[in-house]
Amino acid sequence: MAQVEEHFDVLTKTGEKTGITKPRSHVHRDGDYHRAVHVWIYAETTGELLVQRRADNKDSYPGLWDISSAGGNFKKN
């Protein structure tokens, strides 16, 4: 069975939709702006931070340690 690749909305530098969507791998390859979520799980009582090792087959930063949910480009405040 063929695997379907997720498509991302391509954004402007200010976070507005351009009306273009592209496969995830193309957005990362081309360095396009797109929405992303970063989730930090921190146990204040123990000072522990949950991290995970990225899969070796990821198109960006394979095999490296990362926060629990990572993305690429995002709108900065």
TrEMBL record:
GO annotation, biological process: isopentenyl diphosphate biosynthetic process
SUPFAM superfamilies: Nudix (SSF55811)
GO molecular function term, any single one: isopentenyl-diphosphate delta-isomerase activity
InterPro entries: NUDIX_hydrolase-like_dom_sf
GO cellular component: cytoplasm
Protein name from the UniProt record: Nudix hydrolase domain-containing protein
